[in-house]
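Following up on my earlier thread - several people asked me to post the actual chain instead of describing it. Fair enough. Here it is, all 743 residues.
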Amino acid sequence: MPQEKTVAIGDNIRRIDAVGKVTGETPYPGDIDMAGQLWMKIRFSDRAHARVLAIDTQAAEALAGVVRIFTAKDVPHNEYGLVTKDQPVMCGPESHSQVPGADIVRCYMDYVAVVVAETEAIAAQAVKLIDVTYEDLPAVFDPLTAMQDGAPQIHEQNPNNILCHFRIRKGEMSDGWSQADVVVEGEYSTGYQEHAFLQPEAGLGYIDEQDRVTVVVAGQWVHEDQEQIYHALGLPQEQVRVVYPAIGGAFGGREDMSVQIVLALAAYNLRRPVKIIWSREESIRYHHKRHPITIRAKWGATKEGKVVAAEATLFGDAGPYNYTSTKVMGNANLTCIGPYEIPNIHIDTYGVLTNNIPTGAFRGFGGPQGALAAEGQMNRLALALNIDPVELRMRNVIHDGSIASVGTPFPKGVSMPQVVEACANQSYWAQAVDGWQPKPLPQPANPSLRRGIGFACGFKNVGYSFGFPEQSWATIELHGNCEIEQVIVRASGADVGQGAHTVFMQMAAAATGVPMERVRLMGHDTAEAGSSGSASASRLTFMAGNAIKGAAEKALESWQREERPAIATYQYRPPKTTPYDPLTGRSEPNFAYGYVAQAVEVEVDIETGHIRVVNVVSTNDVGKAVNPQLVQAQIEGCVVQAQGYAIMENLVSVEGKIRNPYLSTYLIPTILDVPETVKSVILEYADPIGPWGVRGMAEMPFLPLAPAIAAAVHHATGVWIDTIPMTPDRVVAALRQQGVGVL
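Reply from S.P.:
Thanks for posting it. Predicted structure:
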């Protein structure tokens, strides 16, 4: 037998799920079947905005093999929502809901009916036989139009379709503009982005041996899924169980409900297992997307390179329901002036309701949109001032003691100056007597190809923000006689592919002083562990790590008292955060941050408009790398996903309907598109309250890439492109408008 080795924080431990996933032995939700199972298909809305007057299911019910059709009248509490319960589970007449207008469909992804049949093919045939009578209502698809007086209203409780409006007011803008020697303005636009996770929405609902409604599904927070299910079904919490098998990617796309509630509804009523698997087309059409946001920005700086004033107005398309839009737009509001200490700031941020596809959580959570504008403005200022962009950042970046835009100090442990300096040193810059300067960049022999370099940086929260309650539970059990023979860890945080469960076990092994082989993890099941919170907000290693560490310390104390087994449960609660003041934005928005900087080299074909990302240097302060190879994997994966967002992924929505719902027409990066190198520079400046100094980091490398690419394109061609994705047609149009590539 191989000799057991104790585990340390910082060791490269192979992922516990690696072999099963590589060999195909690991089951995902779509792989799981039960004897006697039925199949489900969903009838989605045929309209962007309409009242459902009647649903005729007779023809569908007459089809041989159809077991039952559920509509709005069958849902005891016909409402759900992660932040606000503002969406019907199904839309239609006779709805039991506190949501006004539960008989109204407000976008094409709304559910109208659910068919359960003996086979998937029969269910698919039956949904087409359901006859829905609509009364069309006026629709609105442009956020700026939706805000105007007289525009069609999505919800009565949101005048002018304004879901949220956040303000930041710091200093005196008149003073800032009077001090500014240079003022630059820009308008930045971002598009939708599809999560494109490997496993489409799928699941199985059944009644378990303890008579609990059990849903086996992929998600990001088992206990939140459980809460939304038992609320909608009107059941006690203990009668609902949620289990996650392997998840197959999430990126925020599984924070909100897809099939969970309707699976539970069918299984509870039919007392038989019920299964569903969405097609890729259904997945792209009917789950939420990244927010398209338009940002109008105006910044001013002194000739010495001190940014003294920043104004911005942001408009985000929320679709017709909240999902996490209030939180995403709040984060964009915070990040749109970047990691810089600016004395005079004026920001207005609007989340606007439309009849488009709902938008919600996606890796970066408003930060990438904010960073595009902040870093675009900083790079424009550098050009206008004739100051190197790295040098200009070093003169303005936040540091310990800096006052944030919201008027309160950043949490201790700010490492932004060190991150920027390390990234510049490891990439295309060198420090001279008069500051940072770029190194010479060789150009291709082909005159149609131009190379350029760009730099950008950013910061993002670790954990929930703006007063949302934050906590994490963990239980540690120590089993054995004279020595600890087995450690059982109960922590329910979701491993969505990032390796969280490997890290949980590694932290538990390190905290209890045993080899990994002696650690067993019980998670992904509401029946086995308390809530660890969501796999989101770059929080799981930080939050679950603190909980596991605390539980281990208490369990070891019991072990020393010779309690066998020694069992301890610990709830970690970080420092509280506070919401924005509605008038000034003053708040303590977050208890910890991660910091990142990136340098990129691109090659632009001025004839075709194709951008090739050649090299990326991504520098991240992770506090402490629990498992460095997993950190490196997160950086590389994040960079490639951000590359798709920046230059390839163009989701087309026309009057609320997605026109390219296939991976053949919605293009994401493949192995042939990735950069030649992604150099991961991992810094470890300990976070004062992180477990072993850990900071979260999984989202941070997303933020700076698009603005760094935009800066590199400008360096190569002399043309700014402020709309992403920077697809070849957009690039060619921008180049030709500026006379680049014209024969």
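The mean pLDDT is 97. That should answer part of your original question.
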